[in-house]
Write a structure and sequence with these properties.
This protein has eight helices and no strands. By secondary structure, the protein is an all-alpha fold. Helix 1 packs across helix 2, helix 1 runs parallel beside helix 3 and helix 7 crosses helix 8.
């Protein structure tokens, strides 16, 4: 029997759940689309902060560790779609803000862009999944309560951008939840 330098004072084992101590999902439990959103968020952050060229940002991001596990088509749609439609995304977001856009953290700004873009262009992703994914991004990469802000803005936009889907969900409160339209959102890669 060998004796360790720590004696019997080993740190307790972390629980093997799908979340970290902050409540964010662990990497192993993330789908390819969730990973694509993470890389898109990081790339959009570079765009918002440095106004770097989208092609240069794309090249840099694709070289990051773990990119091969991301859904690259979804990443492409988010990065290039958000940059190309930035003005219209901001025009939808701005009325829901309680401060100037310039005062919004670039992480929360990028998470809201992703949410609004998915509301408009990724109709296979349920509106609740869009909001949840953006909250997760803000929790993992943003400030302490940034996820609450992202949640408030996207919840305010959902009835406007996904009216029929939101109305159907809210009208069926007593019914069991429907199966997600995008099973990849809830499975491991």
């Amino acid at each position: 029997m060998s004796v360790s330098n720590f004696g019997d004072k080993r740190p307790p084992r972390q629980a093997r759940t799908g979340t970290t101590s902050t409540g964010a999902r662990k990497a192993a439990s993330k789908s390819g689309r969730s990973r694509a959103r993470e890389f898109a968020l990081q790339a959009l952050y570079q765009y918002l902060v440095g106004r770097n060229d989208a092609t240069a940002i794309d090249t840099f991001t694709r070289d990051l560790a773990g990119f091969h596990k991301a859904d690259s088509a979804h990443y492409d749609a988010l990065l290039h779609g958000c940059i190309q439609t930035a003005e219209s995304l901001d025009a939808l977001i701005a009325p829901k803000l309680d401060r100037k856009m310039a005062e919004i953290s670039p992480i929360e700004h990028a998470a809201m862009w992703i949410g609004v873009y998915e509301f408009q262009h990724c109709l296979d992703v349920p509106w609740r999944v869009v909001i949840n994914e953006c909250i997760e991004l803000a929790k993992e990469f943003g400030g302490t309560d940034g996820h609450k802000y992202v949640n408030g803005v996207l919840n305010g936009l959902a009835p406007q951008l996904r009216a029929a889907e939101v109305a159907a969900d809210k009208g069926d409160r007593g019914a069991p939840p429907a199966a997600p339209a995008d099973p990849a959102e809830h499975t491991n890669d």
